[in-house]
Amino acid sequence: MKWVACELHTHTFHSDGRQSLAELAAGAKNLGFDCIALTDHNTMTGLAGKEVIERETGLSIISGMEWTTFFGHMVTIGLDEFLDWRPVGPGDIHAGLSRVHERGGLAGMAHPFRAGSPMCTGCYWEFEISDWNDIDYIEVWSTTFAPVKNNNIRAFRLWTEKLNEGYRIAATSGRDWHHQDPTDDPLSVTYLQLEEGDAPITAKVVGALSASRASVTLGPLLNLEVTSRGTNYGIGSAVPGGRASGSTFVAAVSADFQVRKGHWKLEDQRYTLKLDSNKGILAEEIITSDAPRLEAEIPDEDLLWIRAELWGMVKGVRTIIAFTNAVYFD
Amino acid sequence: MKTVLVDAQGKVTPAGSKSHIAYRFFVPNAADRLGVHFTYGPKYLEDQEKAKLLIEQGIEAYFEAEYLEQAKARWQSYLPLQNLITVSVDAPDGHRGAAHRHDREQLHVLSRHEATPGLAQGEIIPGMWEVTLSLHAIVTDVCDYTLKVWLEEEGTR
Asked: Can you give the pLDDT at residue B156?
């Protein structure tokens, strides 16, 4: 498996962006991304000619569309055909989700708590969700310098609540990238862990995201591995049930500060690595970028999920800098 | 030759927010091009008092209690409030795209060889076509729109 730097929420002038796909792809390449999903509002025509742009830039481009409805924005990826958002009312989103899934796509809640109409039409998620298993991912970090924004903090909390309820939902970032104007804001990256092999890149991305093999960051790439009864379990995998009571497992967290070198910068500091779970913080360690590791022996009691988090100072604000998706427990 | 198929004007009000207006029209024969011209206005809600009220109502709905006052103090960051109507096109054989953007005047052309951004190129085939106006938000008391749809043959424009 291989970690790939992705930007999963982008636009071109085929909707309301101010960039062509070629300009977007060149911008993403210059920032060290390996893969983007084009998620224009309610159209897929911006994807025309993507193969040429992929060849020229070396960037992978995944097809997608942001359902820009009156009652919420929903990012979809991995589909090669338009699905109609217009018949969907506030109580009908599961019908829409079924259509996405039938065709092999995934759907995520885009910026669910951004202020909605009339300030940003449909931006606040109002669709009724009766089965959270239908939601593949939540875009918990939207736009730039994402983790300090209140609407994102709320989205991150929603994700955590759903994990606590036992749902296995992925969490992603999305810049909602509309133009190439420069910014000094820290940028988020969603790393997806793709399988090796000859499968099409879209299938690999859909496979990784649907399995929560994702790690989200403003810079360093966080990884988490659980060892239980001699077997290792990575991000997104589930430790099988039937474990003896009173047993323990080992959780190992590491942060790779070498990824996308030169494309992000954090001040030298003492960071905090945390191991969070449905039972709260299980372990915590002060680290530096020279020794970015945490290993903890954890009692195997009533766990549904664990994830790693990296905290520290960014632009004078103490914030979460990176987090992994969960390792689950059956 | 240019054949006009739809030539409509309408008025919508805030009550029409979050609704669609579909114009369904018959294309009698295959053609080289389909043209769509759409305008609407006013674009902006100029009345600041009304805008403030709408923004405060929105903030009540979208923010958690502890951030309400902070958000309301920054109500002007949401200005200007705008009407947003977007255009999408459906052919008898399927969807032909949408132009989700803020322009208050839009000229779209579809043909076998070209299409304006957001719309898909393809044959202009006979049958019932549809142009849908999606009213994402109407914030002014009244918003007027015009819609014209026509067929063109090569050499004319």
From this structure: 47
Contact A43 B63 (CB under 8 A): no
Q: Could you give the percent of chain A with pLDDT greater than 90?
A: 97
- For B:83-142, CB contacts with A below 8 A are 84, 86, 88, 95, 97-102, 115, 117-120, 132, 134, 136-137, 139
Q: Residue B34: pLDDT above 50?
A: yes
| B94 band by pLDDT with thresholds 50, 70 and 90 | very high
Domain encompassing residue A272: 218-329
User: Residue B62 and residue A116: Cβ atoms within 8 Å?
Assistant: yes
Determine if the pTM surpasses 0.90.
yes
Q: How far apart are CA A82 and CA A43, in angstroms?
A: 7
Cβ contact (<8 Å) for A14 and B118?
yes
Q: Which two tokens stand for residue A286?
A: 């002060």
Mean pLDDT over A80-85 rounds to 96
What is the value of ipTM here, to two decimals? 0.96
CATH number, domain at A316?
2.60.40
> In terms of domains, do A171 and A232 share one?
no
- Give the relative orientation of helices A50-57 and A21-30 as an angle to the nearest 10 degrees: 20
Residue of A nearest to B67 (CA): A150
B54 closest CB neighbour out of A43, A84, A118: A118
Distance CA A88, CA A93 (A): 6
How many structural domains compose chain B?
2
Is there a contact between A16 and B100 if contact means CB atoms under 8 Å apart? yes
**Rounded Cα–Cα distance for residues B80 and B71 (Å):** 16
Q: List pLDDT tens digits, range A251-276.
A: 999 999 999 999 999 999 999 999 99
B-chain residues near A114 (CB < 8 A): 62
Contacts of residues A102-106 at CB distance under 8 Å and 24 or more positions apart, as own/partner, are A103/A79, A104/A78, A104/A79, A104/A206, A105/A76, A105/A77, A105/A78, A105/A79, A105/A206, A106/A76, A106/A77, A106/A78, A106/A136, A106/A137, A106/A206, A106/A209, A106/A210
Q: Is B60 in the same domain as B118?
A: no
A122 has pLDDT over 70: yes
Kindly state whether residues B64 and B135 are assigned to the same domain.
Answer: no
Residue among A182, A181, A237 nearest A214 (CA) = A237
For B59, name the nearest residue in chain A, comparing CA atoms only. A115
Could you give the count of Cα atoms lying within 13 Å of B26 in the half-sphere of its Cβ?
1
Average pLDDT over residues A120-125: 98
Query: What is the CATH classification number for the domain harbouring A140?
Result: 3.20.20.140
